[in-house]
Amino acid sequence: MIFLGGATYVKSDKVPGKSWYSMDLGGDSGSSGSSDSRAAGYIREFAGALAATGSTKWVGEEKVGGHPADHYRGTVVLDELAKYTGPAIKKDVRDYYVELAKKQGMNSVVIDMWVGKDDLVLKSQESGKGKKGQEVLVEEYSDFGAVPKITAPPAKTVATWDEFIAGKAKA
Hints:
The protein is an alpha+beta fold and about 170 residues long.
């Protein structure tokens, strides 16, 4: 998947002659659920939830991508996070994260975060038991300040959402 400019491009073989389909997600790129913010991963949600919980502890120093980092871990109880009103996480980010995790059937999650010596997050991990069993989401972050080399697929290779649905119906 590629998230770019308010659109999501998904690799697919369901439309003959096309290798991608696109979905226009619309909305404000600053909203917590938009494609542009999702391309950044869940760093806002994980960092805010971890900072908001009283169980967060320093685990030790480790290397991530060859860089020294402080490893922190905390257990976030979602019902408690839903009531949190402090400065660690904005209300809309908190509400979005709690809603998403609860939809997955989670009541609590363990969040690990590795913070580099320059205070930039290098890696995060969320784990918890949901409706489908144990779930783990790991994100690694790098190349801070670099211009991403992500481009949209060539237009001639991209089907519309309607073309994708029609192709899927034929399959």
